[in-house]
Structure formats: structure tokens, C-alpha cells
Amino acid sequence: MEPLHARYPFLARSREAVEAAAVDLGEIVATDETVTARALERVESAITDGTVGEPHRRTRVELLSYPVARVLVSLVDVHICTRKYAQAEAEAAYDRFTEEFETTTELKSTQRETLDRTELLAEFDLASAVRDAGDGYRVEVGAYLDLAADQRGDSWRLVNRPLADGQVRITAEELHVLLKQAIRHRVTEGLPFNVPDAIADELTAEVDRLEEVLSELELTREIDTVVPELFPPCMKSLLDRVQKGEHLEHHSRFAIATFLVGIGMTTDEIVDLFQVNPGFGEEATRYQVDHIRGETSPTEYSTPACSTMQSYGDCVNMDDLCEAISHPMGYYEQKLDDTDEEELVDWREDEGDEEADA
């Protein structure tokens, strides 16, 4: 087991190093608390901070914590946990390989073994799909579409890219972003998987800890997309009641308001929604929404977790996805992830189009 294996545990040769050492994961989780603790840190930090934490000073511990972390993610088996974990591993690798790519040949000869761009391209079968173009790179369109599919921003859309002879022109920095995506795909691959009961039983405390963290956190990226048909059933119901002019209890108003704030709606847009509600007062509603978003208070309030929604009787019409999700924002995130971006029609844009047509 070499330091390079620990820095890039997703590499085929890193996996081979673990196999060559005849490591028994069942024995590891039963007897090596240091590895298990580092594995828990990898996943918990991914959820809370978007990182995998500080690497352990011992190569063996750092490398073995990766397969154990994957076991933990599989046992938790929540989409948001899997996504955040894979993204954090990819971000950590990105930070490392971009730094190593910038290291000069002279320095490399005196340092630890490093990973170069050619090796990383070959790892993901991209060596023949990527060509050095002097002032950038050319990537075969099929590989580009696969790796750029999840990138945000119009600049990544194929129609906005220089395309010639079936190849897309990109910069070195953009190539690194695509490599990060390839790593995320690799980490995600196979997750979750079935874990033997003997191993699962040894990790009960760690899984309980992760489930607690997931239930307490606002599991959301920077969302700015309002697609009501993708809302979780509880929020669909509350929104429907708002639009029908029904009276909502304080906890229900708080829940739908925090959710709408969390998905990117402005105070003006939320105030407009609540105008049809009995007892509506624009000034009071505006103050409450600004208070929730932290503009008139020291705290930015989060959408209540599913357990809180259940305790107040706001959890209704549960579907299959609800059974696997612990937070309304997590539900909405997964629905957005599972929907083709071109099919996502923001409710606010749709409203604007209707007004323009009128």
C-alpha cells in the first residue's frame, strides 16, 4: 500500500493493492476502530462540509477507510448521502491532481510518487478520446456529452461549444472538471450494494450517527429552481391549501415558507403566493419570510425534517420515495437530479411566459 493509493483510492491499482494485501473487511470493521472512525469521518464530513476530512497520517488507515466508507454509504442507502459522498471524494481528488499536474518535472523527481494527466485519462479509458491541441484539448463528442451532462451553465451545452470533426474544444481547466466528473462516476458506481449482515452488525453505531446527521441537516445544494410537480407530497399539499385560501396553522405556514425560501424563491414571490390566504397581511408576511431567510434575524431557518413534519401532522400522501428520504429538501433534490434538465420548467418562468402572451 503506497501513499499514492491512499490519495486516490478509486484507482484500479489502489483496489488491487487492497486485494493483494488480502484484507478482510469483516475483520477490519470488527477490530480496527481507527479505520472505522476515519471511514465515518469521510462520510459525515461529506454530508456536512462537502469534504472527506483530513487524511490520516497512516497510509494503511487512509486507504482502507475508503472501502469501509462505501460500506457505510450503502448501509445508509439514502440518495443524498450517496451523492454528497461521491461529490466530496471527487472534489478531494480534484484538489490533489490539479496540484500535482502543476508540479514541475524537476520537483516530481524529488517528491513522492504523483499522478499525471496521461495516467488519469487512461484510468477512465479517455486516452484515445482526448487530444492535446496546444492551447487546450479536443474531446470526442461522446465522451464530452457523458462527462458534461451534469455540469451547470449554458457554456457546457454542446450547442455553445466549438465542434469540429466530432471533437469538442475545451481548456485544460475544463478537462480537469470533466476528469472530476469521471471520478464521481467511478465512486458512485455500484453504490449502494448489499452488505453482509456480519459487517452491518459491526457498523450499527456508525450508521445511526450518519442517519442522525442526515435528519438534522438541511440537505440542499444552492437550488434556484421552482417546479411544483416535483415537490414532496407534504409541500404539494401545503401549497395547494395556500392557493385555495385555506387557513394554515403557524407550523404549516413556517414549513412551506422555509421550503420556498430554500428552493430559491424571493420574498416578493412568496408574499404574492400568500395573498389569497385568510388573514393575509403583506407587511407581517414579508417580515416573517425575511426573518426565515435570516435578513431580519441572526438565524437562517431550515425546512423542518420529515420527522418534524410527521409530529405536526403535516406529513401527508407519502409515496415510495418518502420512505427512503428523511428531509423534504432531500426529496426535492432527488427529483431534480432524476429529471432531465431540459424538461425542468421553472414555475416562475412559465408564469412570465403566460403574462407575456397575454
Automatic annotation (TrEMBL):
Gene Ontology biological process terms in this record: DNA replication initiation; DNA replication, synthesis of primer
MF term (GO), any: 4 iron, 4 sulfur cluster binding
InterPro entries listed in its UniProt record: DNA_primase_C, DNA_primase_lsu_euk/arc, DNA_primase_lsu_PriL
Cofactor remark from the record: Binds 1 [4Fe-4S] cluster.
Swiss-Prot/TrEMBL keywords: 4Fe-4S, DNA replication, Iron, Iron-sulfur, Metal-binding, Primosome
GO CC annotation: primosome complex
Domain DNA primase large subunit C-terminal, chain residue ranges per copy: 225-334
Subunit structure: Heterodimer of a small subunit (PriS) and a large subunit (PriL).
Protein name per UniProt: DNA primase large subunit PriL
Annotated organism of origin: Haloarcula taiwanensis
